[in-house]
Amino acid sequence: MSEKEHPRDDLLTTEELAHGMDVDTLVVDEVRLAVAMHNAGAVEKTLDELDPADAADVVEQLSAGETQAAARLAPGAFGGDVLAELSDDALEDVVESLNPRQLADAINEMEMDDAVQLVEELEENFRTGVLKQLAPKLRNLLESSLKFEEDSAGRLMQREFVTAPQFWTVGQLIDHVRQSSNENLPDVFYEVYVVDPAFHPVGTVALSTLIRAERNTPLTEVMTSLRAIVTPQMDQEDAAYLFEKYDLPSAPVVDNEGRLTGMIMVDDIVEVLHEEHKEDMLALAGVHEAGLADTVLETVRSRAPWLVINLITAILASAVIASFSAVIAKIVALAVLAPIVASMGGNAGTQGLAVTVRAIASRDITSANVRRIILREIMAGLINGLIFAVIMGPIAWLWFDSVLIALVIGAAMLINLLIAGLAGILVPLGLKRFGADPAVASSVFVTTATDVVGFFVFLGLATLILL
Amino acid sequence: MSEKEHPRDDLLTTEELAHGMDVDTLVVDEVRLAVAMHNAGAVEKTLDELDPADAADVVEQLSAGETQAAARLAPGAFGGDVLAELSDDALEDVVESLNPRQLADAINEMEMDDAVQLVEELEENFRTGVLKQLAPKLRNLLESSLKFEEDSAGRLMQREFVTAPQFWTVGQLIDHVRQSSNENLPDVFYEVYVVDPAFHPVGTVALSTLIRAERNTPLTEVMTSLRAIVTPQMDQEDAAYLFEKYDLPSAPVVDNEGRLTGMIMVDDIVEVLHEEHKEDMLALAGVHEAGLADTVLETVRSRAPWLVINLITAILASAVIASFSAVIAKIVALAVLAPIVASMGGNAGTQGLAVTVRAIASRDITSANVRRIILREIMAGLINGLIFAVIMGPIAWLWFDSVLIALVIGAAMLINLLIAGLAGILVPLGLKRFGADPAVASSVFVTTATDVVGFFVFLGLATLILL
Question: Across the interface, do B303 and A348 touch by the CB < 8 Å criterion?
């Protein structure tokens, strides 16, 4: 639809409504073919005809090699508007294939926040080369943004925003906006920040309020107090939390002296939420930084470290089994049943873990409710333990015709599910307290605990009772 | 800060900057105490003094029982502004304790989309009672929104939005907005939709563009084409995807004839992203609809079903072990090593699964790249298999002093990690094709496959080679 800048009176077709939902595979194939045939004109033409967000989607479907070839072939198709929409993976492949001059051109077309996201992905030396090609003013702004830590609010903010002194009227503000050159205004903004003489933000006026107000109304009458203020040092997740909590369309960023220095927009926050969620979910499953364009070797590299850790803990658990070899040699049923106890513990622990990690990320666990939640998890573990002891006992009895084995597995199940409940809540909370990311490290501790305890309690009780 | 509606020139303190980041536990304790002492006035006063979003956060810290007691005691503290900010769990507890009259009062203060989110949580009979208390116009609007399916875009949309015919000028539009009564305008809006005579949206004008334009400019000159249009039947996840892709602040919703019928705002989409993330993450871990305010029994109920399924699959895997009892009785080392093969497969499968579920949710897997990704996962599985075969073989050799056992576990590891790679990608894609939610059901299939194959291949090869 992007090429239609003029009104139309035809009805929308279902196809048009579905526009944007799925990438057009025909277009992807077209680009792929053009790249294979080294047809630069065709690559450029096909991508240029699309909405930049759609063009970015098409590029994301290509393999890393195809993306690099496309960028080398048709650098003109990778303008600032497309680069701003690319995923980090695809962006990396594209920038590798452009020269500093081409990248600088793209950066000149971008908003500050998007430009920062691009420049931060560049290798040190290459970055210096690109920055040299930029106008001194833009270079300085970019360099000062890059001084903020990665994943901080400072990296997300744009330097263009609209302010008004608190003694202005609605009319004065509107005239000011009209007379400002477009260069000094953000492309899009949803609110104006009212500042005091020291440039501290004291309130905000939504454009939808501004447009309705009489020209002679003082701004102080139509402004509302700020519901949230962000600092550049704040973690981007914390900034996202404020947007979510207070339903903000944008937020002011202030420096150490409390002076307005930038603005963060909600569309960048939507991006952050998406990234952080992906990270949490993959971290829980033990995957480190995965992208769809990854090669086979990158995929192996992102997963093998976790499998090494898992191998160590699995060997640890097996060592527990090995220490009970004598009793297993006499009663093989124990080797059959032991994995059930460990598996149930692992699953129950993972459930509690996922709930806790999610609650920590949403800031739902606080000192006001943490004791109640720990108690709840322990009680739930105990009740689950009772339920599955009562279910598994009779099954073991019927299977191996032994009341004693039934008692042993029942008791082991009860204990291991209680341990699972404890570990599922205490491990992530403990890691958080020590400053570690609970999503990344919890799972190995929890499953090691439930495996080791599961095997030890079951085989230990069996040794005591059956021998 | 909500009570300060007037400018100030003091510096911001760190405390003020941290405002909103953490719930004030002193306030939570205050409310808790007031509830325990049946002090209605204190409950109401404490909550009223907070920003509604903060008041909601405080309520979310209470247990279900405390929340119900607080709502019964001080219904006035649970106005529309607070109810709109509450999580579904807490909302459920509050509405149970209010009568239809009180709820209707709260609904009258709310925006349509928030009102729908509240009413949809009510029990059938109670809902009818509440709707009866509302003005016919509002009731009709609510009832027509509720006709759309749960989790559809129709439930998210508000009915207030601003439109302009395509032949208007900027000045005419601004005058129209100024003269409209506040009742007919949304509280906040970021753009105006330009419509044709049949009320089909043909473009959008951002307020930040409108405010800068000359009064006599035709709207068609400043409007941009619509990047996305939503239908009420669309799944809310699909709507969220469009917002994310096109960086939208709001989106028009059209009916079956393509006529503008509603508007969705980005803050509702942020909420949707949050909910969907939570659901995906918990579903992967086998937790069904968990809330922090849940009681112990609700917690058990949300987790036991998954544990029952896991018990069945664990017994299935144990049956495989049992069928090899004869060889285990002769070589106990097999009982020690078998769980390692199964555990490694389960973990590798879960990694692939998490990556795939995430990619499906982000619509990153399409027919244009699915073959490449499947191939990549299989190759990665094979390489991981080789790596861990080479690591585990020598360990087993040293541990049990048997080259044959080393060969058996190496081969089993290779095969099981290949199966894990296959299952991790094919199970979620297959479930998706059959219309099931890959986040919910995949994990049981994947781990059952890796457990059963792991035990079978390892013990089977052992029987063939060692006996």
Answer: yes
Identify the CATH assignment for B14-155 out of 1.25.40.10, 3.50.30.10, 1.25.60.10, 3.90.600.10: 1.25.60.10
Return the domain boundaries, chain A. Answer: 14-151, 163-283, 296-466
Of A186, A295, A321, the CB nearest to B335: A321
Given B177, B300, B343, which is nearest A212 (Cβ)? B177
Residues in A touching B4 (Cβ below 8 Å): 225
Residue of chain B whose Cα is closest to the Cα of A232: B17
Q: What strands lie across the sheet with A191-195, from one edge to the other?
A: A163-165, A191-195, A201-206
Give the pLDDT confidence of B140-194 residue by residue, as tens digits.
Answer: 988 888 899 988 999 999 988 999 999 999 999 999 999 887 777 888 999 999 9
CATH number for the region B296-466 comes to 1.10.357.20
Q: Which CATH architecture has domain B163-264?
A: Roll (3.10)
Average pLDDT over residues B405-411: 96
Q: What is the pLDDT at residue A5?
A: 39
Give pLDDT tens digits for A125-148. Answer: 888 889 999 989 889 988 888 899
- Cα B215 to the center of its chain, rounded Å: 44
CATH for A163-283 is 3.10.580.10
pLDDT for the residue numbered A7: 37
CATH class of the domain comprising A14-151: mainly alpha
A14-151 shares its CATH topology with A163-283: no
Which stretch of A282-291, A388-397, B144-153 has the lowest confidence by average pLDDT?
A282-291
> What's the confidence (pLDDT) of residue A390?
96
Chain B residues with CB-CB distance to A294 below 8 A: 376
- Residue in B with minimal Cα distance to A8: B202
Confidence class for position B1, pLDDT limits 50, 70, 90: very low
**Contact between chains at B314 and A198 (C-beta distance less than 8 A):** no
ipTM of the complex: 0.84
CA distance B208 to A427: 49
Q: What is the pLDDT of residue B125?
A: 86
The pLDDT tens digits of the residues spanning B77-116 come to 999 899 998 888 888 889 888 988 989 999 988 888 888 8
Instruction: With CA atoms as reference, report the closest residue to A264 among A411, A145, A353, A427.
Output: A145
Mean pLDDT of chain B: 89
